[in-house]
Amino acid sequence: MGVQFESNAKEVKAAIAKLEKQALRETAKLLRKEIKRTVPVYEGVLKKNVGSWVKGKSNETPVLQIGVYNRARARKKGYRYAYHAHLVQFGTVKMQGTDYLRAPVFRNIDKIKDIQSDFIRKIEDIRKNGLPEVGDEEADD
Hints:
By secondary structure, this protein is mostly helical. It has six helices and two strands. It has a two-stranded antiparallel ribbon with strand order 1-2. Strand 1 and strand 2 form a beta hairpin. The radius of gyration is 22 Å and the shape is elongated. The mean pLDDT is 84.
């Protein structure tokens, strides 16, 4: 009878990476709603073109990006391109800008922290205890 060593390091890392991405996606849901609510036009092209992306390879820390679709992505999704997004954000000589992208993020920092902290607790549980154990099934005799 010998000792068998079994490593779950890969599974634990994969579970942690999955939770990190889930946390960013939940944050993105909240921020997309708030940004669309902040856009100064009630209905229109710009609201439809607000999107978010969670980027990062499996060996990298994921990153959340929120912005307006570029021409190719808008066309791919079936939307008209919001060519005026930067004009609304930063303004022009004749129009004052409306900070519809950054302001909702800063206003909702507490909600973002709450969302992230829920997932951080789950990640810390996995780091301390490993993956939850799954019991062996016993066949009925």
